[in-house]
Amino acid sequence: MGWIAGLLGLYFVFMLFVPIPGFGLPDLSRGFPSAETPVGELFSNWAFWIDFHILGEHTWSVRQLRDASGALIWSFDPEGIISTIPATCSVLLGILTGKWLTREDRDDQQKLNGLFVAAGWLMLLGLIVSIWMPINKRIWTSSYTIFTAGMALATLGILYHAIDMKGWTKWAYPID
After folding, report:
1. Where are the strands (E) in the chain, listed by range?
2. Which residue of 60, 118, 143, 151 is 20 to 30 Å from 101, comparing CA positions?
3. Nearest Cα to Cα of residue 152 among 100, 90, 99
4. Pick from 16, 11, 34: which is nearest to 131 by CA?
5. Among 133, 123, 110, 109, which residue's Cα sits nearest to residue 154?
């Protein structure tokens, strides 16, 4: 859990407080730039800046801006380089959840309670963090990662209760 908190904390600090060359402090409240966006404001966050400067033409997204001569001046990849950090934290949270569910020293009710308690705390923490860092899937903000992990745990808790504890499997055949 320490690695997850540390990585999300570092990502939080980096994305909010490290100045972007040619722009200044990041502004996560801005959306995607358009053709009318001044060149100096194209890279309002590190996800935009890093993806463009490392991936350039090789971004997955069709969101690219070109100047009058056709030269690429902005691009973005929603599965970009820097956003891999919080995405990895999502995976690590999933691994912790799997470890929790396979514990032999807890019964099903304790496991279910743990899922819902963790879900509630994570969603609350995600909302609190969103005061400073908005919940934004496109750049996988720390608040997005934390909040959606809570939502996933709540959903898993409902499914765990219905399928594993109550045995209601007929409706769940495709996912069982």
Report:
1. 64-66, 72-75
2. 143
3. 90
4. 16
5. 123
Query: What pLDDT was estimated at residue 71?
Result: 86
Ranges of the chain with pLDDT below 50: none
Interatomic CA distance for residues 61 and 125, integer angstroms: 30
The full length of the chain comes to: 176
Alpha carbons 11 and 46: distance in angstroms, whole number:
10
pLDDT of residue 167: 86
Angle made by CA atoms 10, 15, 17, in degrees to the nearest 5: 90
Tokens encoding 66: 């070109």
Contact status, residue 157 vs residue 119, Cβ threshold 8 Å? yes
pTM: 0.87
pLDDT at residue 149, as a whole number: 98
Rounded to whole angstroms, the Cα distance separating 75 from 57 reads 7
